[in-house]
Amino acid sequence: MYFFQLLTYLSIILFTVSCTNQNEDSRNFEFTYQINLQPSNQKVELWFPIPRSNEVQEITRLSLQPGFLSCEELIESVHLNHYYYCYIDEGLLEPMTLSYVVNVRRFEHGGTNYNNLNPDNYDQGTNHMTVPEGDIFSDILLDYNLTPKNINSVYKYVLNGMHYGKPKSKKNIYYSNPWLSEDGLYGKKKVSRDEVVKLYQDSKITGSNYTFGQGNAVYACDIGVGNCTDYHSYFISLLRTMDVPARFHMGFNIPNQKSGKIGGYHCWADYYVEGQGWFPVDISEADKDSEKSEYFFGTVNKDRVEFTTGRDLELKNYKKHVNFFIYPLVEGTSFSNKFSYKNI
Are residues 190 and 332 in the same domain? Predict the structure, then answer.
């Protein structure tokens, strides 16, 4: 009897361990988020996101070096993102650096059930209409026979219809091959690469979000040229129009080296299947590497870290609209930021 009980107990332990992480392919690294602030004779305020542990990543050994600033950790109310609000009322007499360092263990993963996550919160357009639903998206679904029963067809529609590029001028690397071409016509409106550049330059004058890098699903549909924010906003709008919950994720890709700097943010999405969980997609990475197009539908790799989810965030004492939250927000002085990593 004792031997049978022991076997039963061991079986329970093994089952529990096997279910803790659906894929044990993981990566361990230290991530540094650094903000350099310039002197100022007025109040300085600073907001920056911080990653948290969940079912697909473990965050440990958190270290904040705030310099002259007072900081408090807060939780954004809608998507429960964590962030620091830091400030100094009397300004800064000299330059300073705020540094935030964490250890990350990130898992490659597919479909995942997240605790305390209500899918109903992710089946509606955003308040500022960067990710709307209905209208033109309904027409696309009908024209291309895209249905909730075949999410892969929606993924492939966005993948084939979008072109990765961020051309800020005709001298920019993204203006030319292999990104954009002289004869190419892009998006639903069949625009040229010159028109893509003009929309970006106009947006800098008018403050419009009708350009790449803003995660504007209507822009992505019309123009078809952008970065990860545009690919995944488009995908989310199509799914939400079909009443399929879908989410926006912001973080960083971690290069496949021992250590180094990180040039900028990365984003991806996931969608919900009732009774099965949330399935990730990374359409812009699939577009950069066609050999992984099937892989990035339903799976994402371990070479990343997630900082925030969702759009239209509200932060303590910050009075402007926060479209998405990954870079620091600073009031009262000028700043620069730097992100780096090293394997552990």
Answer: no
